[in-house]
Specification:
This protein is mainly alpha-helical. The chain has one domain. Helices cover about 80% and strands about 0% of the residues. The protein has 9 helices and no strands. The longest helix has about 60 residues. The protein is rod-shaped, with a radius of gyration of 29 Å. The chain starts with a helix and ends in an 11-residue tail after the last helix.
């Protein structure tokens, strides 16, 4: 949920709280009570969708995290083998490229880790036949390729799922419906009560026009 959507949802909550505190004003107007009830239902549905999206996002993040850990567990021994071979053969270029610590790998950004893994796979394929003492198997490289591709796909899937998930589409629709209910019904009902309950109407307008901070209640 974006910052503006969070602010809007907070505004909805404050409006409902204010209307609840002044329910005696609306209680005799059946259509007004219906509008408040409908608006409340939409607000609760938005909160429900927000929780669904948070859950989906967490699940995707856990999958990405595990895939990253799996890749690092394979990557580090291969880097170490290449580095040892570079020292034995006095290959300064390879030695420099493979001078990587565990802490450096752990701190590597996701996209950079994928690039690093692809580079190490290419280097291992190049030097594998010469590395008798520092063995890297074909199976290890095939597994590394698979883990690298899996990690990359999960990263891409997490990004696109966050902007195209069915829950997000549904939540956007709920926001549009809630706004419509607020603008077309509740605002108009409150305005119609401006003569009989001027303070109630003025405080409502203040809430509608304010940036909500802390959800402080205003009671007429």
């Amino acid at each position: 949920m974006s910052g503006s959507e969070k602010a809007k949802l907070e505004l909805y909550t404050v409006i409902l709280s204010y209307l609840d505190d002044n329910r005696e004003i609306a209680s005799n107007i059946r259509a007004f009570m219906w509008a408040i009830s409908k608006f409340r239902k939409l607000t609760e549905e938005i909160k429900c969708k927000q929780r669904e999206i948070s859950s989906e996002s967490l699940e995707k993040s856990l999958q990405v995290s595990k895939a990253k850990d799996d890749l690092m567990l394979l990557l580090l021994p291969v880097i170490s083998s290449l580095h040892n071979y570079a020292k034995e053969t006095h290959d300064s270029a390879l030695k420099s490229t493979t001078r990587v610590t565990y802490s450096q790998i752990v701190r590597t950004q996701d996209r950079e880790l994928i690039e690093k893994s692809i580079l190490i796979i290419r280097l291992a394929e190049k030097y594998m036949a010469r590395m008798r003492r520092q063995e890297i198997t074909l199976h290890t490289l095939q597994t590394m390729k698979y883990k690298t591709e899996k990690f990359a796909l999960l990263l891409e899937d997490r990004f696109f799922s966050l902007i195209s998930s069915s829950s997000l589409v549904a939540m956007n629709s709920l926001f549009a419906e809630a706004d419509k209910m607020l603008y077309n019904f509740i605002d108009n009902f409150v305005e119609s009560l401006s003569e009989g309950f001027p303070e109630f109407q003025r405080n409502y307008v203040k809430i509608r026009n304010s940036q909500v901070r802390g959800g402080e209640k205003v009671k007429s």
